[in-house]
Amino acid sequence: LSLRYGSLDTDCAKTGGTSAVIRSVSSEPYRNESRLAHTLAAAGYREVASLSLQSAAVGERYATAGIALPGGLVEISNPLSEDHRFMRFSLVPALLELIARHERDVPLHFFEIGHVFFESETGSAAGEPDATAFETAMVAWVLALPRNEEPAWRDGGFLEFKSDSLGLLRALAGREPDLVSGRREELHPGKTAVILVDGKDAATIGAVDPRLLAAYGIGAAVYAGLARIVDLPVHRVARWTAASRYPAVERDLAIVVAADIPAKDVEHAVRAGAVDAVTGVRVFDEYRGQIGRAHV
């Protein structure tokens, strides 16, 4: 495959017939997706390629599980078969089907880069819906692990997947990403986070919704990350800064908070209180139990 190619336009307005006009097409999207694929492969994830066409059964499975779709299904007017009647609305179903087929081999690490399609309906002047099809390049990566006996509040698999995902964004961006709680269909509402780079949404990660796992007959714990290619940050080489002439000073703080306070809120509170006195704050440990008469 050529990394750079052209397309032909015909100009029928010129005298003497048609003439071909070559338009230059940028290879930047290919290079970005290639860099993304190599970064995921280096982290131990195996690439998957699935069809963009699917049957109605995929959407019906989501509906049965109570998972909302991002938009209306894009239907092909003249499909080759009923198995190819609709364009895919997500990369997750194909990855879940693969996990269900090879669940005995967990742990499993897969990823796919491809386009998804859905319809967004807006009201027309006559009051009738007009459907507009959207096509978006996406990347999805998943991790399937055997389930472990853990307290309900702890999920070691999510911590492992979070580490992989932060490493991916760190390698792509060349700078440290941030993490905040989030929400997305297909993912567990209480175990979902948004990865930020420079304060902008770059990806969403989380445990796959248990209802969706049940719909695919998967007993393993599965975690997924999703991102639009256009949202992924451009790599930036960090500027050199002179090292301090003084040794670094680190302090461990033990803070008692309610059990429902996110760790990120604790970090923000410490940063706000310390103003410019600290260069970094990180929650590195968690204890749950009884302290005096209180349970935390």
Give an overview of the whole structure.
There is one protein chain. It contains six helices and 13 strands. The N and C termini lie far apart (59 Å). Mean pLDDT is 84; it is low at 1-15 and 123-130. By secondary structure, it is of the alpha+beta class. Strand 12 (290-291) and strand 13 (294-295) form a beta hairpin.
What labels would you give this structure?
6 helices; seven-stranded mixed beta sheet; alpha+beta; disordered N terminus
Query: How confident overall, as mean pLDDT?
Result: 84
Large-scale geometry = globular
One letter per element, helices H and strands E, the order comes to EEHEEHEHEEHEEEHEHEE
Compute the number of helices.
6
Can you list the strand order of the major beta sheet? 3-6-7-11-10-9-8
What's the count of strands? 13
Binned strand content:
25-35%
User: Radius of gyration, rounded?
Assistant: 24 Å
Describe the oligomeric state of these chains in a short phrase.
single chain
* Structural class computed from helices and strand pairing: alpha+beta
Distance between the termini: 59 Å
Helix content: 10-25%
Low-confidence residue ranges: 1-15, 123-130
Strand count, sense and barrel status of the largest sheet are: 7 strands, mixed
